[in-house]
Each structure stands twice: as C-alpha cells, then as structure tokens.
Amino acid sequence: MMKFRFRRQGTDPQREKIKQELFAFNKTVEHGFPHQPSALAFDPKLELMAIGTKSGAIKVYGSPGVEFTGLHADTTAVTQIHFLPGQGRLLSLLDDNTLHLWELVAGAPRDAGGAKREGVVCLEEVDCYSLPGRPGIESCSATRVTVLLLMRSGDLLCVGTEGGGVYFLELPRLSLKESQTLLQDQIIQSLPDDYRCGKSLGPVESLQEHPQRPGKLLIGYSRGLVVLWESTSRRVEQLFLGKQQLESLVWERSGNLFVSSHNDGGYSVWAVTTGNNVIHQPVSSTIPYGPFPCKAINKILWRTTQTGSPVVLYSGGMPRASYGDRHCLTIQQDKEHVTLDFTSRVIDFFTVHEFDEPSAVVVLLEEELVVMDLRTPGWPSLPTPYLAPLHSSAITCSFHVSGVPPKLWERLANAGRAQQDLNYNNIWPICGGKNLAPPPKNQELLLTGHEDGTVRFWDASGVALTPLYKLSTANVFHTDCDPSDDPQDPSDDPDMQQEEEWPPFRKVGCFDPYSDDPRLAIQKISLCKYSNKLVVAGTAGQVIVLGLSDERSAHPVDVSVVDLLQDREGFTWKGHDRLEPRLKPASFPPGFQPLVLVQCVPPASVTAVALHAEWNLISFGTSHGFGLFDYHRRNAVLARCTLHPNDSLAMEGPLSRVKSLKKSLRQSFRRIRKSRVSGKKRPVATPTSKVQEANAALAEQEDVAPIQRRIEPRSADDSLSGVVRCLCFADTFLRDGTHHGATLWAGTNSGSVYAYALEVPGVGSGRACERGAGEGGVCVEAVLGKEIQLMHRAPVVSICVLDGRGKPLPDPYEASQDLAIAPDMANAHSVLIASEEQVFSLPKVSAKTKFKLTAHEGCRVRRVALVAFGSVAQEDYCEHTLVCLTNLGDMHLFSIPGLRPQVRYDCIRKEDISGIASCVFTKNGQGFYLISPSEYERFSLSAKTLTEPLCSVQLDRPLHATDSTATTTPPQANGTHKNHVGQAEGRSEESPSALSSPILDTPLDSPLSCADLTLDSTGEITVEDVRDFLTTVDEAENNLKNIKEEEGRSTGILIN
Fold it and tell me: Which residues form the signal peptide (predicted)?
C-alpha cells in the first residue's frame, strides 16, 4: 500500500474549468488621493485634469468614474505635465530630464453589466525624448529642462533650459527643430551695456505665448529680464529690464499687459507698447503683504472679467517673520481679498474659465485637492466627488458593508448633506469624458476609523470613492481641546472686531494630521445594516454603541464600566488613563448618535468587537480579556480575563513606553535564535499543567511529512498571549447535538478558544426570535461550554460557525426577515477556526479537516474572510470559499467545509506590512488595502465581480487602437507591480489569471446560500508583523502531495 501513499492525484478538467469561471485576480482601481503629487495639468477643451506623482505615476480624471492611470517605466518624479488641448495627448517631464508623450487610445470592447461596451479608452505611452547636450560642454545641466510651453497651434513645443536656451520640438513626433533654437548669447547681444554687466541671465523661468499674436513668445529669465521674442522673424521685439529675481509670468487677455511675480513677494504689471524697444520700469509694482520681507510669489494668474475688475490669484508671498511657515493662495478682485490658508504645501493651481471669466480655481496641495467656486459670492469651497483625502486623519481601521438597504443609504446621505453648507450651485468643474460602467447593482459602504476619533462613511459602489457621512466620537468625552473649555472667541470681542486680521486668512481643506488626543483613535468598527446599530471601539478601552437618528438630539450617554481583570492580584496597569466621559447632556447632530458607552478597565486598546443586533448584544476584547454586554438592558453579562501570569507587557499599553516595543522585538529575536539552534528532538521543560504536558507529548511524537516545515510550539510565557484576536456570535449547537442556542466564541493570541452558551430570551430551539414586553426584566446569561487549546499556541485569527450544509450562518435579521436562506439546523454544525499557522474545521470538538498553511507554505495567516464567489458562466451558481491573506502578501483560497486549496495569488508585497495589516475583504470577492497613507488599492478575486473604470472621451483626432493581443497588467501607482514599459490603462484589461492550484481531485461544492461572513479587518501593525518582516522566510512553493493523509493525522488541539 505504501507505493500508493504519495501518488499524485490526477487533474479534474471540469473542476479546473469551474475554478476559472469563479476565480480571477485583478487589481482594478486606486481610491483616494495620489501619494506625493508633484505636477498638475488641465485640458480646457476635454475638461480633464492630470496629476503626476513622485513615483512616476500619471492619473487623469474627468467626471466621476472617468479615470485613466499611467506609470512610467522608471519610478522617477514627474515634474511637469502639459495637455495638448482637445487631442487626448499629454506630455510629461520627469526629474531625469526626459520627455514622455502619452495618448488616449481605443481599447477592446468590454463586457460590463451583461452588455458589450464600445468606445472604451485607455492611456498609453507612445514616445519619449531627451534633449542632446550642447557641443563642447560636458555637463548636461545646460540642457536641463526648466519650463515647457505648448503653442496654441498644437504642433510645436517650446522647451526652456537651465542654460538659458530655448529649444523647439515638433509635435507629436518629438523631433528637434534645430534651426529655431534660441540660445542665451543671442539675447545678450541685444541688451544695453549697463544691463549686461557680463552676468548670465540665468535659467529660463517662464515661457508664455502672446494671447492675440501667435508666434510671439514672452521669455522670462531668472535674473529678471523678460524678452518678447518674434519666432517667425527670429528677432527680439522688446526688452523688459526687470531687476528682481523672476518666478513666473502671465499675460493679460488683450496682450497689452503682462504680469511678473518675483522672489521678494511682489508682482509687477508691464505694458507692451509699440515704438519703445527697451522698457526699464513696470507700470506698477506691488508687494501685497509688505513692507517687511516676504517669501516669493511662485506663480501668478491674471484673469479678466466682464465686470472689469480682474481676478488675481497667486501662491506664496507671505511675510517671512510672521507667516513664513503658512501655505497660502491669495485671491483678489477689487476690494475682495482672501488668503486661503492650507495645511499642506501648494504644488500647483489652475483656473477653469470661459473667455477668461474664471468660474473655479483648482488647487493641488501635497495632501489634498481643493476647489473654490469663484462664481458664488464669498468664494466657497466645493465638495470633491473623488480624490478625497482618506488620510485627513490617519486611518487606523476599516470595515466594509455590502448590499446596504436603500433606506439606510438615504438616511446616511441626508445626514451627510446636513453636515455641508450646500446653499449654492455646486457643479463639479472637471467633467470631461463619459463613464461607460453600468450603475452598481448594490450600494456598498466603506467605513474608515481614524486617529482623531472619527468614522468616515464612503460610497464604495463604483470607481469614485465619494464621502458620504462623517461621525465624530470626540464629543462623547472631555478632551484636551474641549470647545466648552476654550476661552472666549475673539470674533465675539468688539475690540478685536475693530482690528481686521491681516492677511485675511481663511482655513480651507480638511487635511488635519494632528489629533487632539491619541486615545480617541478608532480601532474596531462593526455595523448592522438592518437595525442601524453601530459599534466603534477605541484605543483607551472605550466601546460606543450608536443608533441612527434623523433629528438633532441632546441627551446624556449611559456609561458602564467592565473590569476585565476581575480583581486579579499582581497586575498593575502602567498605561494611559481612560477618557473622561461627559456626564451632562450633549448635543448630537443627525446621523449616528451614541446610546451607551462601555468602558473597559484597564483602558487598553480594544482588539476585537462583535455585534449581534437581533440579540442586543456586543462583545469586545482587549489584551486583558473579553466581555459581553447587553446594551438593551444596560448590563454587563460576562467578563473573562485571559492574562497569563507572566504577561507583564499587556499592562504597559501602546502609549506608555517605547521600551515595550524594544522588549517585544528582543524577545522575538531570542525565540528566532532559539528555534534555529534547537534540534528536531529538543528537550521539553517540566510541564506545569495537563495541557502543557499533552502538548509536549504531541510535539515529540508527531512525525513531520517530508514536504512540511517543522513548526515549533510557541511558549506560553510569550508577552501579549492574552490578547483577544477575534469574537463571534452564532446560533448553533454547543451543549448537545439536539438543542441549539445563542453562543459566543473568542480566540486569543496564545491559541485558546473559548465557547460560551448564552441564555438570550426568545432565542433557541423551539422558540420564536421575538422579544415580548414582559421580558424586559429577564437578563442574558453566559455559561462556559468549551475551552479549546491549539497545540502550537498560534494566535487565533478568526472563528466562524458553519451550518449543516457547510455554509456560513446568515447575519443577524437575515434569516428572521427572510433576507437570506435559513441555515440548516437539522444536521450537525461545525466551527471553522483559522490560526496564524493552520485552518481547522471542528464539529463539536473533534477534528474534521485541517490545512497546515505554515507547514506547507512557510507563511502565516493575517486576514481571513468567507466569501461567496459567483460564476461568470452560470448566473445562479456560487461557491462559498475561505480566503486567507498571509504575511507574505499572497492570497490562498480554500473550499469549505473541505478546506481544499483552490488557487493562490500574489497580491501585496511582503515588505508592505501596513498594506497587509490594513486589508479588508468584501462579501462578493473584492478587497481593499492601503498602498500609501492616502490611497486604497481595490482588487478582485472574483471572475464575475469587478469594479473598474470603463471610460470614453470624444477627441479632436481619430482614436488609434491599442494592441489587444498583448497581455497587459493594470499599472499601480505605488510602483509595487511588474509593469510593462509604456503601458498604462484606465481599466483592467487582464484576462482571467492563470490559476495556481494544487493537483487535487476536489469534489464540487454546490452552495445553497450566498450569505457569508467577513472577519477581522483591523489596520494595526503588531510585533508579529515586524518579526515576520525581519525574519527570512522560505517563499518557494512546495508540492502538496500529502493533503489526503493529513485528514487522518492528529488534530493538534487539546481541550481543557
């Protein structure tokens, strides 16, 4: 029989075909604000905007849903972008002095929403060019490009350089027209002797074409000289002898005036007259924020209006001593004067205008995009339908909700609109292109928790991630910046009102990286979309239950304290204090309003929460233990301490000392060295309990298959062993196989699983799930039913209960309100436990199946979700699958309940610890993870469900078709992918991925329900993540020949 033991199983072609219809990996779109933007451009004809980044990415935006992404071959910063208006072409200048030409090209027709979409457009690089060095000059700095200008004819590009030369390139071929090259020597010969003085004119700082006379160029040099150059006759028409270092130039619309801005914080107006070839002085010169020294005005725009008074916009110019650290943009018109004060650096700005009448100004900042409405009195800011700064306060966690009911969506949208002042016509000015994607079938919410105690609700139904509603939890507590404790507002003081502030600052933008109190940071979120109940938990042990209300309310918040230590001796909390709750009634705006505050003691960061709104129960866990609370009756049901006697690190808290992290890293390295030098038969210390004794015996006796890695059991003395990693409610069988009831499951960092039987009024076998009026005095009770200890003490990442058909139990209210197929309660249930090292399926407490992921793959589980995958071939067919994200950044998909490997995909770089920690899955096979502090990458594991840009643009030229036979990979702007040179797309063109699946004869699962459960989506980074990054892990895949034999082996679990 032994010769058949390791026989390779044959491949089932039918199963492989079904897997290709179910699974396909695609990175589809990037949500949020581009990381480290460096350039901005606008096409007034196509109404498209482009943003370049320091990582070499180009992102083009139009109306919501219209997006195109390009990525240069080298991750070099984009310094300038310029559109060829109306042509669907743009030029990019990189920091390595190369020019790149991009085009919008026609893509292949795409199937979307059951219909074929024609006219889909993508962005593609078509050419690149670099200026040759000047003969006889070894240094290339003389030809380093400083400024670009596209002539209005659209067929000529002017290039200004550091050496003072101006070169002309023919477009779109990017060929140099040497006969038109203008060197600085030619200009110097035309200068008066007293201005020449043997000095260089410096680099070319600005190039501007005459608005009325094509071919005439205004050339500005750094020294201050401005030249009006006639390119047709190649002669100097006029000289403007500026004496201050030049920053930028702009024409007045008639061409009779131009404005220059300078490094002393001033700007000058020059008159272009006939008959006088040399102009020594400007018509006027102004230092707006003088007379004291001011910073440079980097860019200035002068826009004429029908009323006669021009609108002047400029960045910089602030007084050095008083406001030198401010990031400002000034808007002036007649007597109106506003200084927009931003919280991050101004990169660039442009105006949207018709015949020079500005309707809006778009400002690209380092951390956000701000748009000001110039048509409405007061110049208010416009809300952005995309490019919202997700990191306005640092993201600490996330939670996704699929299939949001229309009523909840409408109420959230109304609450969000009430938070904004929308008493004006807010038309988004960047509205080019056409979105071809079908409307979403279901509404999706992405909730993000932030460091300042806010929870932001985002519309994640489509390509554009749009802000919907913002919830703040700070008003539940007294904080260091409590508004009620502030001194009198200076605006209320009549003496202060007499002195008008100068400059007239106005705070604009929502990026605010500073938190009033780090204890407010949100760590966990859970939302019930049917009952409109929300649970948020924070860093100081606060757990808040909120309900949705359409009216403003002023009420006190009930406070309950739960002691998780249970008076255990020998433990002293050394961390931060808990937040002080408000005892007086507070005013809460429409939206989610707090009902009850549960305060954990000690006030450690909450590591897990679970909400069951149908039972009115919440469960929460910290590094000390877990608790159960009935928020309907306002009483604590259970508090269980999970601390080990040696778990001293759990008492220090995350905000107490830096040496805590050092201590953890030191202990991790000691364990690593210990495991490397220890042999296969290492001596076992004297066990102190029956559980440890049995663990040691199993560890010595277990035979490791030739293809498996040896897994060393983790010490029970490890710090933070009591951290609660996951919590789960389920209506299942725990006490016996005939009576089901409410249960609570908890998993810890040391591999312990606790299962509690709950006595909830109206829940259980033979009773309707209805709560009568007379049950108000009946309390919920909890009794410990089972306690499971995993052999290797690996942290338990998630727990989920499967019904008699092996399908996940429906969410609360889904079964009782006939929103999902009722679970199978006739057959025995099983519980699915995922630890960092392996995945178990346990009916009752005896092993059914397991997969040793660490032993086979050399990786550890970080995120887990149960997902329903629909088939692209059969509309009514779907399979429930277990998705595991590992510390190496790859996705493993397993069938349930058999736990047979299906496919594996490389998703995230293993070095991207924060990306792996921030990953959250959706119920339909998609997911999100942070690729930068301000951007989410959206990906899909499903062949059927994709959220990707499908766009078209009407151009002035015929569209060229892209090569549809070439295999293209969606470019990612963070530069973490393997990118084909010169390829960039506005949508994913990737065919279904080649499946990396083990050769197994897998039986076909046929689920009856599409309900699933998304588990653990925290974005925190643990010491284990850092250790995994520092430790060398074997990444090579191994042949999984012994999967069949593993089913008969020891389960590796013990029962206390």
Answer: none
